[in-house]
Structures are given as C-alpha cells and as structure tokens.
Design goal:
The structure holds 3 protein chains of 3 kinds.
Chain A (H helix, E strand, L loop, with lengths): L5 H13 L1 H11 L7 E7 L5 H14 L4 E7 L8 E3 L14 E7 L9 H12 L4 E7 L4 H4 L6 E6 L12 H6 L2 E4 L7 H14 L10 E3 L8 H50 L3 H9 L5 H13 L1
Parallel strand pairs in A: 1-5, 1-6, 2-4, 2-5, 6-7, 7-8
Chain B lengths: L3 H16 L1 H8 L29 H5 L22 E6 L4 H13 L4 E5 L2 H4 L23 H7 L10 E4 L4 H15 L8 E3 L17 H18 L3 E2 L1 E4 L1 H5 L4 H20 L5 H4 L3 E7 L3 H22 L11 E6 L11 H15 L4 E3 L12 H17 L13 H24 L2 H7 L1 H18 L28 H16 L2 H16 L5 H9 L4 H12 L9
Parallel strand pairs in B: 1-2, 1-9, 2-3, 3-4, 4-5, 6-7, 7-8, 8-9
Chain C lengths: L9 E5 L8 H12 L3 E4 L6 H10 L4 E6 L4 H14 L6 E6 L6 H7 L3 E3 L5 H11 L5
Parallel strand pairs in C: 1-2, 1-3, 3-4, 4-5
Classes of the chains: A alpha/beta, B alpha/beta, C alpha/beta.
Chain lengths: 305, 560, 137
C-alpha cells in the first residue's frame, strides 16, 4: 500500500471503515509515513459546483506533476442507513489517471459529519504518497466545521443565485476558511457575492496574519483554477512558517483526546456489561435514583481505584 | 355554458342522488378502491356532471376547430379532410438497411419518414470512434458522413416525402447533410419538408443525450430555428419534446408543463436573435407521448393545444394564428410495453393510439409489440402500422371533429390539467427560467420522484400491470422472433469511413473545420459553415469535435 | 430502522457505453440506498476501464450494470476481463435492462451472476444482493 498500489489503498480504507481493531493496527503501522501531504478541505452548499471545481483542480495539480487523492463525503440517510454517493460522476474521467485516487465515503451518522474512517482514509492516502489530498464535504449541518480537524487548508465555496445569500454562510465557516471561492463567476451576482464576503471578513476585527483571499472561478471552463492553486500553494508556504506545527499539535491533541475518550468509554462500558452492572445502573437513572453525571463520576472513581 | 338556474337544479338532484341511490348501491357493491387518482395526482370523481364545467364558456374555452384557442383542433375539418400522418420511427444497421426499411414502410402505406440514428451518431461520434465500439447500427442507423446520408435516401425523392430526424446535439449537422442530399437531387431548398427534433433542453433532464453544456446547446438549437426561418420555410426546425420527459418517469402533468416551458424558452431565445415571433413560431412543433390512462392523455393533448395558443397570444403577442398552432407528433409510450406476454402490447398501443387520435394529433407513431425486447421486425412493425390504419378506416372516430368535446369528465380534466400546468410554469418562472431550473435540478427532482413513486406503486400492487404483477405466467417462455443487428455492420462502417477519409480532399476539410472553429468562437449562426463542411465530406465526429473544443463537454447533475 | 454505523454493502451502479436510459438505474440505485446500502453511481457513458477502476478504488462488493442499447455483448466481456486482470474476482456482478434471453447463458458463462429483465421488482434485486453479496469481514 505504501507504494501507492491502488488496490491496497482501497482495501485499507475499507478496513478503516469497517474493522476498528484492524484499523488501529493498520494506522499504527503506517503512521510514521504520514505527515507529508497537503490536505485540503473543500466545503460549500449543494449546487455550488464543488465536484466540478475539484475535477479542474485535480487536472491542474496533475499538470504540475503532483499526485492527488480525493475523498468525497456524502451523508448517510438517518432513516435507512444507506447512502447515495454521486460526487464521483463529475470526476469520472480522472478515474483512469494513474496519479489520481478517488474514494466516496458516507458519513455513517458520525456525530460531526466526518467519520473517523475519513480521517483514517486521509492518513492512508498520505502514507501512500499522495502529494495533495482533497476532502470534499457538503456544507450542511455540522460537518463543515468538522473539516478543520482533517484539513490544513480550508476552502469554502459559494455560487451566486443558489437562493442562499452569502449571509447564510454560517459564522463558523467564515472563521475557519483560509480561501473563499466564488464559483460560476460568469453569473450576474458574482461580483456582489465577492463584495459580501469581503464585507463579512472586515467585520472580523482580529488582526490576522493570513487574510483569506477570494478567488472567482468558472469551474465549467476551468477559469480561475490556476489562480486558486497558486493561492493554495501560498497558504501552504505560510503554514510551513510555524503555524503548521502549531495546528499539527492542536490536531494531535484533538485526536489523542478523542482516542482516549473512545477507549475509556468502550472499555468501561464493556466491563460494566460483562459484569452485568450496566443494566442496573441504567435502571437507577431511569428511576431517578441517580442522575447520569453523578453515575458516571461514581463509576469512574470506582474504576480508577 | 349552462343556465345558472338549471345548474342549481342539477346540483340539488345530485345531492339527493348522493344521499340515496349512490350509498344504497355502494352498500351492495363497494367501490374497488378507496380513492381513484391518476398518476398526475388528480382525483377522479365517480361522476361528472354539468356542474363540473359550469364556468366554461364555449367560445372562450373551446371555440371552433381552426380558430383560437384551437382546443377542438387546428383545422376546421381535421381528419375529415386529411388523416394524421402515419409516421413510423425506423432505423438500424447501415444506411442501406434503413433505406430498405424506409421503402418497405412507404410501400405499406406509411405517409412520412422518421429516422432513428444509432447511439454514436446521436452523441456525435463517428462509427470508428472508441466510444462507438459495440454500438454501431444497433439502436438506429449509423451516419458518419454525407456519403452515408446519400445512401440512406437513395431512390427516395425529397420533394415527395417529408422526413423526421430524431437527432438533438448534432441536429445541425444532420440537417446540413439532408440539405446537401436535396441539393444533389435538384430539389429546391424551399421545398424540403420534415422535422429535426433538435430539442437540446430536454436532454438535460430527460433523454440525457447532452453533449455540450446548457448554454451552447440552446444556442445550437436556436441556430437551426433561425436558419430555417430564413431559408427552409417548409422545415420544422424543432420538435419540442415531452415524450422523453414522460418516459424518464414524469407524470402527464409534468410532461405537459415542462414541454410547454421548454417551448417558452425556445421562443424567448429566438426572439433575442432579432426575429419577430410570427417569423418562426408557425414552424415550431411538439412531440408527446401517449400513455395508458386514456382520458388523462386526451385531456392532456387538448389542454396543450389551448394552453400553447394562450401563451403565444398573451405572453408573446403573436398575431398570425399559425403562430398559435400547437402542431404535435405523438408516439405511443415505450415504457409501458412489457417483456412479459408481448402480444398484450398490441392492445396497449391501440388504446394509446386511439387517445392520440381523439386528442387531435397531427402525426402518430405506434410502437411494435416486441419493442420491450428489441428493435421491431418487419412483421411487428406492420401490425403497428395496421393499428393506425384500422383506427383511421374502420373505427369511425376520424369522421367527426373532436368527438369528446362537451364530455363533463373530459372537459373538467382538460381544465384541471391546464390550470395545474400553469402553476408549474409560474414556479419555473419564479426560479428564473429553464436554465437555472436545470442547474438547480428542479426538473430532475420532480421526475425522479414520480419515477420512484410509480415503481413503488407497481411493487405494492397499487398499480396493476397485466402480465407483470398480475395475471402473470410463471416461467414464461417468450417465443417471438427477435431482430438482431448484424455485427458486421460495425466492420463495414469502419472500412467505409476509412476509405472516405483517404479519398476526399483533406486540405479542404481542414480549411472548413478551421473556419467552423472560428465561427463558433465568434458565436455566429453555424448552419452555413456546417453545410459547407458536410459537402466536402467532413465527418460528423470531426465537426462535433470542433464544437466540443469550443464549448466543452457536459457532465450531468444526478438526482435519484 | 437501520443503524447508521457498521459495515455496509457497497454497490456500484454503472451505465456502460452510450446508452442514455437511466430511469431504471436511478430507481434501482435509490431502492438499494433505501435498503441500507452505500450506492456509488458512475453516471452515463462509462468505458469498461472507468467502471473497473471505479470498482477497484471504491472497493465495492457488488456491481450492477445497466444497459438498454443492445451493446452488452460487446461491452460486458471487456468489463469481466478487466475485473479479472485487476484481481476483482470476488465482486458480485449482475446486469439489468434490455438483454435478450438467448444472450443470458453466454453472459453467465463470463461471470455475470444474474440478469434482471424489464419488469423486475426492485424488491427482487434488493433481496438478491443482500443474499449474494460477498460476505467480507
């Protein structure tokens, strides 16, 4: 897999999605090889042209001799558990390009919208030697802010005439975006969209070393894409100056904390279930004998002794 | 239309009937369903009376045939004067094969030609293109160059027949080839009669044969409309189609509304070229499906005619009555044909054809009973043609105009279809027009929902399809003969193409293709240059490749 | 009601060749999704190479090929050949659309496990996939 063999990469991602224990072993093994790729997150509302833009971005990167991995995330239906993964359609011509790997993943109802498996998939593509990894998510619900846990450069894309005003870009997105893209720039309201974003950025008083640029693109023709790639490169240079390390530390902390939470929770709950104390405690909570937080504290104190 | 007092009397009597005779009978014999609804979502009442059409005004809403609003028919005598054109869609294999089928159908009494092209041709690829592998001549005739076109119409005088060509993206090229054949035969261009489907808008959400993105696709369609308005007065440059929309899963109502909206879009675009509406509107034509729900279809056709007339008069201020004519071709529905017990399809096609005739169509294609399995054989296509002839000559329905007018049910349904279609039209106007609606996936979503709903109804047996989910023959064997296209067709075509490329004047071809590239970038009307190109035997694929370079290729928006 | 997490059956619904009739493919895709599967749809006009690459990268369990243009005898063998080349021999492959009865034995010989003709209820296809998808860890 480390050589970039596509079949192995695909199988590895499947393991990450389905077998937590095997995944852990796998990630442990490949982790030393990660940390080289530039991870780009792309998020925005449906209809903004994300997939079309990514297709053009990938072509541009390929022209510059880079290898690219793309992860397209779509929501799992909360009712049926199934998912329709259709982002690939715009990128299908790239599927036979040796230097491109595209994988569609469903959120599988992970709380933040970006499953742990997706984060693992990023690591896998990183270890497999991909220079650039693009993660595409739909800008709905929580997932767009979750993307900060995965990506180093975050691009927020919007298109005029979608029915949402720029103001509808949730506050969280405005803060985390490193680059803004106004796609379908040949439309009437494109310039207004750019100005609206500028206005909202100015409301943010904080002195920032990196002012998010606003790039106009026409994804259908590819116009604006080379400029976008330039800006992404600039951001990468900027991050290298020290911010990258800081963010990496933050990311590591977030991941470690989450991993600890996961493990502690599952090991304690498993133990309780094995010792058949779990049901009893639930009953106590339901019968108002004890509240959940106090019950947890009691349990932890017992376990940690 | 009715006396107010008489209506009140009837209403009283109806209420009495509803309280006595009706429930007494229902106690004895309950209705088969709790509610009867057609697929468009309209509730069908048990009984229709004059009350249901009491607000109608005969002159305003029905009028006389041949006069606005044309509800009762475009011409004063309709089929008493001239029967509808029996125009059977045909095409497969090489140009020679289809030429033979054309001549067969003409000899059996068909009155107009209709051409089916193979997939590579439809998508603008030559028969030797890698994407054409396995598809040459399979679903239609393979036409890669003017040479093929000349063979296709060999021995068929273009001043004596009219030809419909079902082609969209490359419509300009195929029309150019037809014009070139006519020129060679010595037929003056003003005498060339026929239709090119040329409706690129519906491709984006129905037939899906899109080559270029929406804007350039629309431009190419309008190029043909404009060219014909100025140079080919007898040619119908466009057949604004609802058939494919319906086949993709839309309801009759959606078919009606979306087709009419496409028509509105084409008129608007053509007006932007500086033509006046009366200069081109008389040659716009339409193409609908005819499905199983007999009265829904008849109501749809009549509502379409009246609604289009009103739109042309009120929205576009047409003055010439011919601009308000909705001339339509109808094809019986392909997706209602079953692979199981195929002979049943003859019955389905008959009902659908009858609806089209009672709806007042100008031209009709009837499907063959084996078409759920393959292209029709000579025998099966003959039965389909006979179906039309029996309706025309033996059933008597063609002997008076618009026989169902005045039926309380049919008029009420026609009114409701028109009303609901107007609501859709308003909705699409609000979205900003057809291209924004396509990009937002509006049509696609509506159609996907209807298609899925239909399938669910079939699987839950709320909708019965005889032979498929009821009256099934277990372990059925289907003994009918199938038409198979000879695999040597592909080989023959490729050889012929390679020979052509060797023998033509390649310098001239290169020159004209460059000229075309330049013209496309300058956004000129491309028809004259394309005609030049086909005459020096540039191939379809070569011409389309130039346009692909300029316009880019289209990737669809998927909504399931 | 299905749970969100846990192993899902991944199905690739593909339209090989130039055939543009996608009503059936889309209805099946939706039905499979509603049955709890993850469905990857390639869109129209896929070459055999694109289909197999997609199956490989997406590590699908099942491939459904939809074709109504009659070109199946030219395209399917190529697809099966490529699947073998790439080592994807444990993927369940089925087909649907307009495929004459007489062609089915030949298709089964090259590895198409089942062919669903017009009128097949989606329930039948769902059941088939659930029962026959390769049981992977």
């Amino acid at each position: 897999m480390l050589t970039g063999d596509k079949r192995s990469i695909a199988k590895a991602i499947t393991i990450a999605e389905n077998s937590p224990e095997e995944a852990q072993t796998l990630i442990a093994a490949i982790y030393p090889h990660t940390g080289k790729a530039h991870i780009i997150g792309l998020t925005g509302p449906g209809g903004s042209g994300k997939s079309t833009l990514i297709e053009k971005m990938v072509r541009e990167y390929r022209r510059r001799g880079k290898t690219v991995g793309v992860i397209a995330v779509d929501p799992t239906s909360p009712f049926t558990g199934g998912a329709f993964l259709g982002d690939r359609i715009r990128m299908q011509e790239l599927s036979t390009d040796e230097g491109v790997f595209i994988r569609s993943m469903a959120t599988r109802n992970s709380p933040g919208g970006i499953a742990k498996a997706t984060k693992d998939a990023v690591k896998i593509l990183d270890a497999a030697g991909k220079d650039i990894i693009i993660v595409e998510t739909v800008g709905a619900g929580q997932s767009e802010v979750e993307i900060i846990k995965v990506a180093q450069t975050i691009i927020v894309i919007h298109a005029p005439g979608l029915g949402d005003e720029i103001q509808a870009i949730k506050a969280g997105l405005m803060e985390i975006a490193d680059i803004f893209v106004v796609n379908k720039a040949d439309r009437e309201n494109a310039d207004k969209a750019v100005m609206d974003i500028q206005a909202m950025l100015q409301l943010d008083n904080e002195e920032k070393a990196w002012t998010p640029p606003i790039i106009k693109t026409i994804a259908l023709t590819g116009e604006g894409v080379p400029q976008l790639i330039e800006k992404i490169e600039e951001h990468w240079q900027y991050l290298q100056k020290g911010l990258l390390h800081k963010r990496s530390l933050e990311k590591a902390e977030a991941e470690l904390v989450e991993a600890i939470k996961d493990k502690v929770t599952s090991s304690i709950i498993e133990k309780l279930k094995r010792e058949k104390r779990f049901e009893r405690i639930l009953q106590q909570i339901v019968e108002r004998e004890i509240d959940p937080a106090s019950a947890a504290e009691k349990l932890l104190n017992q376990e940690l002794e | 239309m009715f006396d107010k007092q008489k209506i009140e009397e009837i209403a009283k009597e109806r209420e009495r009937w509803e309280k006595s005779t009706l429930p007494n009978w229902i106690k004895h014999c309950p209705e088969r369903q709790k509610e009867f609804r057609n697929h468009s979502g309209i509730t069908i009442k048990g009984l229709y009376t004059p009350e249901d059409i009491k607000d109608m005004d005969y002159m305003r809403d029905l009028g006389f045939p041949g006069e606005y609003p044309f509800t009762r028919g475009l011409h004063a005598t309709m089929y008493r004067g001239r029967l509808w054109t029996m125009r059977m869609f045909a095409g497969y294999g090489t140009a020679e094969d289809t030429n033979k089928r054309f001549k067969y159908l003409l000899s059996e009494g068909e009155t107009g030609l209709s051409t089916a092209f193979d997939y590579p041709t439809i998508m603008g690829y030559d028969s030797d293109h890698p994407m054409a592998r396995g598809e040459v001549g399979v679903c239609g005739v393979a036409i890669s160059s003017l040479q093929d076109m000349e063979v296709l119409f060999d021995g068929i005088p273009l001043d004596k027949v009219t030809t419909s060509m079902t082609i969209n993206g490359p419509a300009s090229v195929l029309l150019a080839m037809y014009i070139a054949v006519g020129d060679k035969q010595g037929v003056p261009r003003e005498k060339l009669g026929g239709t090119t489907q040329n409706d690129n808008l519906k491709e984006f959400f129905a037939q899906k044969l899109c080559i270029f993105p929406p804007k350039p696709s629309l431009k190419l369609s309008v190029d043909v409309i404009e060219y014909c308005a100025r140079h080919l007065p007898k040619w119908n440059p466009i057949s604004i189609s609802g058939y494919h929309i319906r086949e993709a899963g839309a309801t009759a109502l959606q078919e009606l509304a979306f087709t009419l909206y496409d028509g509105i879009a084409y008129v608007e675009e053509t007006l932007k070229r500086g033509l006046k509406v009366d200069d081109f509107a008389p040659r716009l034509s339409f193409f609908f499906a005819s499905h199983n729900d007999f009265f829904e279809e008849i109501a749809k056709f009549r509502a379409a005619r009246r609604l289009w007339a009103r739109i042309m008069k009120e929205r576009f201020h047409a003055k010439n009555p011919r601009s308000m004519w909705m001339r339509m071709h109808v094809q019986t529905s392909g997706c209602t044909l079953t692979a199981q017990q195929p002979l049943n399809n003859i019955v389905r096609t008959t009902i659908q054809a009858l609806a089209a005739v009672l709806g007042g169509t100008q031209s009709l294609h009837t499907n063959s009973f084996d078409e759920a399995l393959c292209l029709p054989t000579e025998e099966s296509v003959r039965v389909a043609l006979r179906t039309q002839q029996i309706i025309a000559y033996e059933s008597g329905v063609a002997n008076t105009v618009d026989p169902l007018a005045g039926s309380y049910y049919v008029e009420a349904l026609t009114n409701e279809m028109e009303e609901k279609a107007m609501e859709y039209i308003q909705k699409i106007d609000d979205i900003g027009g057809v291209i924004p609606a396509i990009e937002k996936g509006f049509f696609q979503k509506e159609i996907a929902e209807s298609a899925y709903r239909y399938q669910r109804e079939v699987e839950e047996k709320k909708r019965i399809i005889v032979g498929v989910n009821e009256y099934v023959i277990e372990g059925e064997e289907i003994p009918i003969k199938l038409l198979r296209v000879n695999p040597s067709v592909e080989k023959k075509q490729i050889e012929r193409l390679q020979k052509l490329r060797r023998e033509r004047d390649n310098r001239k071809v290169k020159e004209v293709l460059e000229k075309l590239h330049y013209a496309a970038e300058k956004e000129e009307n491309l028809m004259p240059t394309i005609i030049e190109a086909v005459k020096v035997y540039a191939t379809l694929g070569e011409i389309m490749d130039v346009l692909r370079k300029v316009y880019g290729e289209y990737k669809e928006l998927i909504i399931i | 009601m299905q749970s969100g997490s846990g192993r899902k059956i991944r199905v690739l619904i593909a339209k090989p060749g130039l055939d543009s009739h996608d009503r059936g493919a889309k209805v099946v895709a939706r039905a499979l999704r509603d049955a709890g599967m993850e469905v990857i749809y390639t869109g129209l006009r896929q070459t055999p190479e694109q289909i197999v690459e997609t199956a490989l990268q997406e590590d699908v369990d099942v491939i459904g090929l939809s074709i109504l243009s009659g070109a199946h005898m030219a395209l399917f063998p190529r697809i099966m050949e490529l699947l073998k080349e790439k080592g994807l021999t444990d993927v369940l492959v089925f087909a649907g659309g307009i495929i004459p009865e007489e062609d089915i034995p030949e298709l089964k010989k090259i590895g198409i496990k089942e062919v669903f003709g017009p009128g097949t209820p989606t329930e039948t296809i769902i059941k088939y996939v659930l029962e026959n998808a390769p049981k992977r860890k």
